[in-house]
Design goal:
Blueprint: H1 3-12, E1 35-40, H2 49-56, H3 58-72, E2 76-82, H4 86-96, E3 102-107, E4 110-111, H5 116-124, E5 139-143, H6 144-156, E6 162-169, E7 175-180, H7 185-191, E8 200-204, E9 211-213, E10 225-230, H8 234-240, H9 243-253, H10 259-263, H11 265-268, H12 275-283, H13 291-294, H14 304-309, H15 316-329, H16 346-349, E11 351-352, H17 353-359, E12 371-375, E13 380-384, E14 394-395, E15 402-403, E16 408-411, E17 420-421, E18 426-431, E19 435-439, H18 440-454
Parallel strand pairs: 1-2, 1-5, 2-3, 6-10, 7-12
Antiparallel strand pairs: 4-11, 6-7, 8-9, 8-10, 13-19, 14-16, 15-18, 16-17, 18-19
Bound molecules: iron/sulfur cluster (2 copies).
One iron/sulfur cluster is lined by residues 254-260, 275-276, 279, 309-310, 312, 314, 316.
């Protein structure tokens, strides 16, 4: 299969990165790709999805990876898995021999092993330059569920209409479930037996990089996990802290110890990320060197400087994010720069996930979240038109229409965009440029009424 054919299938089936920003996958199929990496680092504490999916579907996922390699003409495929996921590595080892150009890369149990820049270095010893892209050095990275979705589209003509989500921490029965796109966080949490804390807070994604969401937030193609925590938990306190107060605390307590910079994964790979310099310049309102503020654009928002490194409990990551977002909102993009040499003792400065979990008071939540792959049924969904980076899709249906699960209900916009398919069968309650709401019970009731009228 050639690149254009695969690209058309990926686009037609609405496949984007099943996590993170959700970059449309077709746009990653570039002729310059020499190395394709399957990212099964799953480095955020408590996340349990990819290792289980790869363990159960190693054949399908490795086959999917080989299709990508063939389409872009890549010389090498790397399956990057943490050594500690022993059942997953065993499943990969059982199939990888069928692909002579593929190899298994064992990763260490450190955070953030799954950050693209870190993962590429660990797997290939190549450094993505600051402000650059993996494709500049001939690499493309795909996550496990994305490649599984590609396989399902290729072999079973199945568009993306559901999502695997791990539900963990303060729930009765942590588990990983497959739900239709558009169900609410509350419904998904109920599938794990409901909450076990009186005042729960929901984090969509990992505890390091995920965001707090309300219980009526809906699942999209990029929702990997829902972490339920008590409101008073350390992680919640850090995520809800006010930057006005964070700045005052930084001015009073930042001792310029440089620990935040010394542990920054991007700094360790030679990127111009110096959180301690930023803290000094921001708290002193010192703009003599504006580059320090522009360098916030090179931060990956991994959160390590804040959640782990700073002994004073300060918030460099959150403050940097505010500056970075301000620059982005004003159309400023990071310049491509030359990376400095890799920090010599980088190896020993990497942060073990176990220690990170301890620091974040998460260790007791680190229990299995078994995978249940059968699709959960639900009565109503709110399917978002924007589910990934790029332009939102445009609805093709209107209120009162009936749709079938898997039916195309929104077309891609111009530019980087993907179509959207119905995740359940039902009657369209509302369709606008933000979402399409589909209700199954209303369709069933209409059918019954029509049946009675006819007979
Ligand atoms: S680790 Fe904390 S105290 Fe030390 S330089 Fe960084 S922000 Fe300041
Ligand atoms: S969040 Fe902190 S540790 Fe992570 S990349 Fe940004 S500055 Fe570095």
């Amino acid at each position: 299969m050639n690149r254009n054919e695969l690209s058309a299938i990926l686009k037609e089936n609405g496949i984007c990165g099943a996590g993170g920003a959700g970059f449309p996958t077709y746009a990653k199929l570039d002729e310059r790709v020499e190395t394709v990496i399957l990212n099964c680092a799953e480095c955020e504490p408590l996340l349990k999805l990819h290792r289980q999916l790869l363990r159960e579907h190693a054949y399908e996922i490795l086959h999917g990876l080989s299709l990508i390699m063939e389409a872009v003409g890549a010389k090498e495929g790397i399956v990057a898995v943490k050594r500690s996921y022993t059942k997953t590595t065993a499943a990969v080892e059982a199939h990888i021999g069928s692909y002579p150009n593929m190899r298994l890369k064992y990763l260490r149990e450190v955070y953030p092993a799954g950050d693209e820049v870190v993962l590429i270095y660990e797997s290939t010893k190549k450094v993505v330059q600051p402000g650059g892209l993996p494709i500049d050095i001939g690499v493309a990275v795909f996550n496990v569920e994305t490649v599984y979705n590609l396989y399902m589209a290729m072999e079973h003509k199945q568009p993306v209409t559901s999502k695997l989500v791990s539900v963990v921490a303060e729930v009765k029965e942590p588990k990983t479930v497959r739900v239709p796109l558009g169900v609410t966080v509350k419904e998904v949490v109920e599938l794990a037996g409901g909450v076990t804390t009186p005042d729960p807070v929901y984090i969509m994604g990992g505890p390091m990089m995920g965001n707090l969401v309300p219980e009526y937030e809906v699942i999209t193609k990029t929702s990997n996990a829902i972490i339920v925590l008590p409101r008073e938990h350390y992680v919640v306190q850090r995520k809800t802290s006010s930057n006005k107060i964070n700045m005052k605390r930084a001015a009073a307590a930042c001792c310029q110890c440089e620990q935040c910079t010394n542990m920054c994964p991007r700094f360790l790979l030679g990127h111009p990320s110096h959180p301690h310099l930023f803290m000094r310049a921001a708290t002193c309102k010192d703009v003599q060197d504006p580059q320090i503020f522009l360098d916030t654009m090179y931060c990956s928002s991994c959160g390590l400087c804040e959640m782990y490194a700073c002994g004073q409990g300060l918030s460099p990551a959150k403050l940097i994010a505010e500056y970075k977002n301000g620059l982005k909102a004003n159309g400023i993009k990071p310049e491509r720069r030359e990376a400095a040499p890799i920090v010599e003792d980088r190896q020993i400065k990497r942060v073990p996930v176990e220690r990170l979990m301890k620091r974040m008071c998460l260790t007791h939540y680190n229990i299995p979240a078994p995978l249940h792959e059968e699709l959960v049924e639900c009565a109503r969904v709110k399917i978002m038109m924007r589910q990934h980076i790029g332009a939102p899709a445009k609805p093709l249906v209107k209120a009162g229409d009936y749709v079938e699960a898997g039916q195309l209900i929104a077309e891609p916009a111009d530019g980087l965009s993907l179509p959207v398919h119905a995740s359940i069968s039902g009657k369209v309650l509302e369709a606008n440029d933000k979402f399409i709401m589909v209700d199954k019970a209303l369709m069933d009731a209409d059918k019954k009424r029509k049946g009675r009228a006819n007979g």
